[in-house]
Amino acid sequence: MEINKERGGFAYWKQIIILLCSGWVTIWIYRSALSPIYPQINDSLGGNISDTALGSIASFYFLGYVIMQIPAGFLVDKIGKKKVLIPGFIVFAIAAFLISQAASITMIYTGSFLAGIGCGSFYGSAYSLTSQNIPKDKKSFSTAIVNSGSAVGSGFGMILSSFLVIQMNLPWQTMMYLSTFLIICMTVAFALVIRSNKDDVAFQVNEARAEEEIGEKPKENVSLSTLFSLKMLFTYVLYFATCYAYYMTVTWLPNFLGTERGFQGVAIGFSSSLVAFASIPGALLFSRLADKYMHKKVTFIVVLELLAALMLLVTVQASNATFLMIALIMYGFLGKLAVEPIIISWLGENAPSVGVGTTLGVFNFFGMMSSVIAPTLTGSISDATGSKVMGFYIAIILLAIGSILFLTVNAKKKVN
Fold first, then answer.
1. How does pLDDT run across 57-98, given as a tens digit for each residue?
2. What angle do CA 352, 72, 286 make, to 5 degrees?
3. Which Gene Ontology molecular-function terms are recorded (predicted)?
């Protein structure tokens, strides 16, 4: 079947992998750029901003992001990925530039919220593209490659922010100018590479015919009963816990290392980036194994989640920098970016194939709700106790609860 070939001989699904990986790099350079330089932002705005208020910068971004998940997923199914992604990234670029011009914390909140709205167009579009275009036997591994863009962007965002702003004493707005430029480049790339809705529909029709020829039975339509079945609901809970731990760590780890563990200068960004970079080999390894042992995906998911929780526990309990760094590297290797491709692949096998964008939107909505809560809650805990350690403990407990619930509902299904 040649429907997945491109005129130049380079398969469309491979172009999609490169494009979407680059999209995550761009998003995560923006997402991770501000947290290492909260003190510099604070100083530029008068120096009297609390940790709760600084943590709310990330919360406003994720609030906009979460609000867009279900509408964006619905629009992806109705009008196509291209028509959702391009306007979204135009809003994203405007928002990043607005933050660079901010003279108050309120203006930063406004820009962050708009950036979240713009980025909210990406998730449903991206994983609808992977679900509908990548060969089935390569989906987990290909999704891991796409997700590795998150790790690369997060790592580079922290390193560049720490180096350019903290080490080189450039204005903190420098990172927003860089983000704006990258976002514009990605918008152009989306316009050039992604198929129009008409071509995309033609591809899906051909794919459906091919599946009929080999005797595959189409899945049921998407409905409230399938979206919110007990199995799906506990998957959302698990993803909520996974995202809570990750976004709490991404938002506050640089500050935690600097204020509570004595790290200084570029060492803060470099140490924090290890979580992201360590996730790349973890994601590629475990997704490859999950593709090979497809009937063991639930086991992979639960074991990785529990081990990630254990590594976070070691992080806060570590008595010296060496143990702390080892725990951070292992959390990256085993954590969200490593397990997420397997969860998405599992979801694709158990969720309705019709309305993929809507299903992914609901899934990501519940997961990303945690990213609204975690930064502000951890900041509030820090203001009240003088430490962010309790924030780590909350993340650990949520991971354990989510894993147990997910395992219980899937084990029950096997017994039945």
1. 988 998 899 899 888 888 887 888 899 999 999 999 999 999
2. 55
3. transmembrane transporter activity
Residue 127: which residues within 8 A CB-CB, separation 6 or more?
143, 344, 356, 360
What b/e sequence results for 158-174 when a residue is b if at least 16 CB atoms lie within 10 Å of its CB, and e otherwise?
Answer: bbbbbbbbbeeeeebbb
Structure letter (DSSP) for residue 170:
-
> 151 lies in which domain range?
12-415
> Considering the domain boundaries, does residue 249 fall inside one?
yes
Output the pLDDT for position 200: 55
User: Is the separation of the CB atoms in 360 and 127 below 8 Å?
Assistant: yes
Q: What predicted TM-score, i.e. pTM, was given to this entire model?
A: 0.74
CB-based burial label for 225 (10 Å; 0-12, 13-18, 19+): exposed
**Do 176 and 276 contact (CB within 8 A), yes or no?**
no
In a domain, 6, yes or no: no
Burial 185-200 (b: 16+ CB within 10 A, else e): ebbebbeebbbebeeb
**How many other CB atoms sit within 10 Å of the CB of residue 282?**
24
Structure tokens at 217: 């039975």
Inform me whether the pLDDT recorded for 412 exceeds 80: no
Q: Is the pLDDT of residue 415 over 50?
A: no
For residue 10, give both structure tokens: 């380079």
Strand, helix or coil at 386?
coil
Question: CA-to-CA distance for 258 and 251, rounded, in angstroms?
Answer: 13
Query: 218 near 211, Cβ under 8 Å?
Result: yes
User: How many CA within 13 A on the CB side of residue 80?
Assistant: 16
Residue 2 lies in a domain: no
Rounded to 5 degrees, φ, ψ at 372 are -75, -40
Distances (CA, A) of 287 to 70, 141, 230, 406: 27, 5, 25, 19
pLDDT > 70 fraction of the chain, expressed in percent and rounded: 88
Torsion, Cα of 160, 330, 120, 6 (10° steps): 90
CATH number for the domain harbouring residue 21 = 1.20.1250.20
Structural domain total, the chain:
1
